[in-house]
Amino acid sequence: MKVRVRYAPSPTGYQHIGGVRTALFNYLFAKANNGDFILRIEDTDQTRYFDGALDDIYQTFKWLGIEYDEGPDKNGPFGPYIQSERIALYKEYAEKLVETGHAYYCYCDSGRLERIKKIQEANKLPPGYDRHCRTLSAEEIEEKKQSGIQPVIRFKAPLDGKTSFEDTILGRIEVDNNTLQDFVLLKSDGFPTYHLANIIDDHFMEITHVLRAQEWIPSTPNHVLLYKAFGWDHPQFCHMPMVMGEDGKKLSKRHGATQVIEFRKAYLPEALLNFIALLGWSYNDKDEFFSLQELAKIFDIKRINSSPAIFDYKKLNYFNGSYIRKSSQEKIIGLILPYYIEAGLISKNPTKEELDYLHTIMPLVQERLELLTDAPLYSDFFFGDYPPYKTWEMIVPKNTEKSKIIEVLSMAKEMLEALGEKDDKELEAEIYSITEKLGVKAGAVFMPLRIAITGVNKSPELFPVMHILGKERSLKRIENAINKLKSEL
Ligand code: GLU
Ligand code: ZN
Asked: For ligand 1, atom 10, which residue shows the shortest CA distance?
């Protein structure tokens, strides 16, 4: 039996990290087992439809480089892959369940449902439909039909006994049937509910495994019962752990970015994918860096955890940084060039000189960058005569006189006249000797120099930066800092 799995998003918003985790695990499970991965759009809840969602789903897959074998824009033998194009099928099968006595028409209007809800609340009774129409007589049904009310179709849930299934990750899950509802299958507008459309499609699309987040567990007994009512086998269910923020609460906006569209500008897709693969899954307890191709070979469904996965933004950034370092200069430049243009550091139509210069500074940028969007912020000092002095106040360390720093910088400037002639190490040692000469700590020499040259307290190593800036520009910057300090005396 060929493994067939699906990712079945509802187009109600932008793709969420949790959704991508589901998509990725389905994809990896399919590929690791020579199976098929299907994209299906579950758009039967017209009230929750969000305009940009469908496009965002396609963009997300494209950006991540995950390919589905069948889907709306791919076709395949089991289409259409958009539920709103399969409405007739759901209606036909809902009516079949009425015929076989597994479902019934319910004519209750919203007023009546509202009233029972109020009564239940007042009497502290469990909420839910009171099954009023389950036992209507033939005459009553005829009467309702005559009145022209558009009914819904409800499932006749068993009133006693238990429903259970074997979850790949969680083991046996069992519920008492008396906790279940006569849930709606077909709405009065002829559209199916999630439950009905989902299982009909899984059945006809020959889905063998359903991998989805644990939040769907309460729906699964309904699905098991539906499969039984149709006389079909149900797929194997695998409910994956939830993705949480660091506070242990369900990942949401409060924690930071959660939608793929928010990650696209600053992250490399391969870094995000690698990180997401580890949300609730591990290969062993030491190896963490994997490409999509590697994951597709080694993914083992048995190594999915049952406990919640924590979304650690710092770890994601660390992953992104290491993928940036592994990438070619060409690729990174291509990705960050727009940000330099946006920041006004490079012209709209970059000249050859500008591009060459970007290549020159790139090794120093790439070595410490974590977010692509931060590149201009971390390298703006390579541009212009003087750097933006972002941490100017740190040029004078605590308990040090301004005049002392002026002396330090003047001495360093003189020594740096030899920049490019003397060996860097030698020159550095010479500058270090200022500590003894002027009786200051190393921090009172190198930090002021760093700020004079780069304007910030954290930068790449100073000598490589000065070589890129050139001797003239470097010395001018030191002089400028000296003058600035003098004016502050
Ligand atoms: N359409 C559902 C969703 O939005 C699919 C859930 C499932 O995989 O059964 O996630
Ligand atoms: Zn009813």
From this structure: 9
| 96 closest CA partner among 219, 226, 210, 195 | 226
**Distance between CA atoms of 206 and 204, rounded to whole angstroms?**
5
pTM value is 0.93
Is the C-beta atom of 216 inside 6 A of ligand 1? Answer: yes
Q: How far is CA 76 from CA 36, 39, 148, 207, in A?
A: 11, 11, 41, 14
* Contact between residue 197 and residue 42 where contact means Cβ atoms under 8 Å apart: yes
Per DSSP, helices labelled H in 147-248 are 194-204, 220-230
The rounded Å distance from CA 98 to ligand 2 centre is: 14
Shortest-distance atom of ligand 1 to CA 9: 4
Amino acid occupying residue 25: F
Rounded percentage of the chain residues whose pLDDT exceeds 70: 100
Average pLDDT by consecutive 10-residue portion of the chain (489 residues)? 97 96 98 98 91 96 98 93 97 98 95 94 93 94 90 98 98 97 96 98 98 97 98 98 93 92 97 98 95 97 94 97 97 97 97 97 96 96 97 94 97 97 97 96 96 95 97 98 95
- In a 10 Å sphere around its CB, with 0-12 CB exposed, 13-18 middle and 19+ buried, how is residue 90 labelled? buried
What would the DSSP string read from start to end of 231-279?
T-PPPEEEEEPPEE-TTSSBP-GGGS--BHHHHTTTS-HHHHHHHHHTS
User: Which H or E run contains 103?
Assistant: strand 103-106
**Tokens of residue 430, six digits:** 């010479």
Q: For the residues of 357-387, what is the DSSP string, one character each?
A: HHHHHHHHHHTT-SSGGGHHHHHGGGSSSS-
- What is the position in ligand 1's atom list of the atom closest to the CA of 42? 1
Q: Could you tell me if the CB of 8 is within 6 A of ligand 1?
A: yes
- How many C-beta neighbours within 10 Å does residue 423 have? 9
Measured CA to CA in angstroms, residue 431 lies from 86, 404, 418, 461 at distances of 76, 15, 11, 15
Question: Of the candidates 395, 354, 365, 368, which has an alpha carbon nearest to the alpha carbon of residue 477?
Answer: 395
**Is the beta carbon of 214 within 6 A of some atom in ligand 1?**
no
Instruction: Report pLDDT digits (tens) over 314-371.
Output: 999 999 999 999 999 999 999 999 999 999 999 999 999 999 999 999 999 999 999 9
Give the C-alpha separation, 183 to 220, whole Å: 13
